[in-house]
Amino acid sequence: MNRVAVFEGDDASPEVVRPAVRIVDKAGAAIEWSYPTSDDPATIRSVVDASDATLFGSASTRSVPVIEYLRWGKGTFANVRPIAFLPNAATPLADPTGIDFVIVRENLEDLYIGMEGDLADLSALSVVDRCGRSPIDHAPGTYAIKVVTRSGVEQVARSAFDLARTRAQQRGGPGKVTIGTKHNVLPATDGLFRNVALEIASEYPDITVESYLADDLARRLIVTPAQLDVVLLPNLYGDILSDEAAALIGGLGVAPSGCYGPDYAYFEASHGTAPDIAGLNVINPTAQILAAAMMLDYLKQPEPAQRIRNAVQAVYVEGTKLTRDVGGDASTTEFTDAVVASL
Ligand code: ATP
After folding, report:
1. pTM to 2 decimals?
2. Fewest beta carbons within 10 Å, which of 15, 44, 71, 333?
């Protein structure tokens, strides 16, 4: 039996979290769910700390402190986002078959550390831009600090290469990691990310490594997505390219996400809180349900995880109970009922 903390999230998020909880129970997983009784930070921390993992709905307002604790408090450095085509999901590609890759996004550093401010505040520092001008020459204006650390890249790169190795063993093919950075424009930060990732690659001689500029990789995602296996990205590019990648397979409603740290992990849909469709019973719960299956794998309950994936796959193959974002006309409830029936 595992204990899982549940944060239903904001706006439309509870409408996908509740179906996911229902389906995990129906799949026969041994989970004891634990819901926070209040929004105060001490309660959030104690519910998370007393659990083996968290199932999280997306945050826009009320739940932002939760996500901050789950990420930086628990050190969940690797954001893993599988991108696999489900039959009958409407996509903009003429031929989406064969798309099956995973984005591994660094989750704690880069521009997401939240250090921004007024350019004038930097005037006392002896820093200059590429043309030799001081920050004050640019003022008034603002700045953001981008941080990349050797240890931060090492741990996320190892996760990516380990994942490529596991996938190669499962699929019986060669494994590959594709790195995307802007090392030409940002040699100190993205250059470090790329160099350290390539160093880690040398520990995995069985895994092929390739490195592209992030903008070139954005193009390759559209043109040759079936050639990708594991894609390793810094935080910001990972955020942007994973929405682009989700579009290839039918949109945000089908893309799950797991964030793993040294001793904790949380699972959510890749999408946000979809405030525009809150309360309409039309949101697609597939991403959240597949994230719950990833959670069961993490908790070493692979059988119910696989049952859930099979049931979702069967509903897509059958194709008449799909939600409108992937080309159907079923409600959230009708889709969920179909997955439960398939289980
Ligand atoms: P946030 O600020 O929380 O990220 P957002 O509206 O900016 O919210 P998303 O929540 O990711 O971003 O939504 C982007 C668009 O995709 C919205 O039109 C939303 O309705 C749609 N969308 C997102 N998730 C789903 C889903 N699971 N099913 C159907 N449509 C979705």
Report:
1. 0.95
2. 333
